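Posted in: Structural Biology > Protein-Ligand Complexes

Title: Requesting predicted complex, zinc ion in pocket

I'd be grateful if someone could produce the 3D structure tokens for the following input. Sequence and ligand are given below.
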Amino acid sequence: MTMKEGEAPFVGDIVLEGSRIARIGPQLGEEADEVIHAEGMLAMPGLVNAHQHSPMSLLRGFSDDLKLMDWLNRKMLPAEARMTPEDVYWGAKLAMSEMIRSGTTAFADMYIHMNEIALAVQEAGMRASLTRGLVFLENDGGRRMREALDLAEKWHGGAEGRITVMIGPHAPYTCPPEPLREAIGLAERLKLPIHVHLAETKEEVAVLREKYGRTPTEYLHETGLFERVHVLLAHAVHLSERDIGLLAGMRGGIAHNPVSNLKLGCGIAPVSSMTGQGLVVGLGTDGAGSATTLDLFEEIKAAAWLQKLGREDPTALPALEALRMVTIGGAELLGIADKVGTLEPGKQADLLLVDLNKPHLRPVHSLESLLAYSANGADVDTTIVAGKVLMRNRRLLTLDEDEILRQASVRAARLVAGL
Ligand SMILES: CSC[C@H]1O[C@@H](n2cnc3c(O)ncnc32)[C@H](O)[C@@H]1O
Ligand SMILES: [Zn+2]
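-- Reply #1 --
Done. Output follows.
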């Protein structure tokens, strides 16, 4: 399944040369140095997680069933204040083990100690867009901006081009006008995209109304942001029709995080209205500290079901559209759609083999329905990024999973002790 617009699934071969797809088509039957026989399997583009906080895998299940602000202020921020660069490194590796196992090949990450995440990405062999999250409520904003700049200088284009960097003002409610303008200015100067949370809860909308007399979207729009740079907006749950109009024509788009939104009771993002206005939508998990899973197959289902339920219309967000969101949609949000997101000659070989030899994946009336509504991450047999096999026959080849699990248990226990 190439995910190229209008191209039907076919039985065939994919020939890789180096990091790229050289040829793809029905039964090419070419000689090769190495052959993966994939009878009964389906090849598709790697999944793109368009928004998350990878080291929060260490906080999975530590604090559930709370409102967003209580969860963040009372639980996550105190645990994060204890995180060392080494904790972040091992938390990111834990997340990457889960992502590779469930077919994610690229992800957009916003967090702290980003140098350690970059090292982990380099070693794991994944593709990532990395962002130093910028919260400006305390007075060390200058140090954070310097860290964002250092990250860009050291890692943009790094790991053989698999790493790119964005500038990350965290959210309208944590970024007053002056530092927000500085962050946007930095992005413009470095020609980098912006990655920012937007309008996740009704409370956020009320806070912005009280502080600035504007919706969160109006607040960002007023800076000229959407005309100036490529923007990755995470969540965008509470947007009015007018807000959606303000985003029309933007470069970048929206990372929809349906499982996180469901679990935190945030609301249903107006995804169908956004796509109706021509906005690009991708899918993200958010951190495992809120969503508890990094399996994008869960997000595909949740995204489709939420739109169908919210609009009381089973035709809303059909299977193929959800699959396009999690592949080429995410690639567009990360600014790498020229490299990945579809299977076609010349693009990077970022792809998965999904094992269809399972009772819950038979019979094959519709591959797109099976993938969107019946498959899960454990059905992924093989994950390949830039032509390198990261998982084969469900065995991780670039990560030491036993060591990662050991490090994660010890470090997670220390982070949450007494909180
Ligand atoms: C400063 S790094 C990023 C920062 O974001 C926090 N975070 C995680 N999930 C969410 C969410 O759903 N909304 C807002 N902020 C979130 C994370 O804990 C880090 O502190
Ligand atoms: Zn987030």
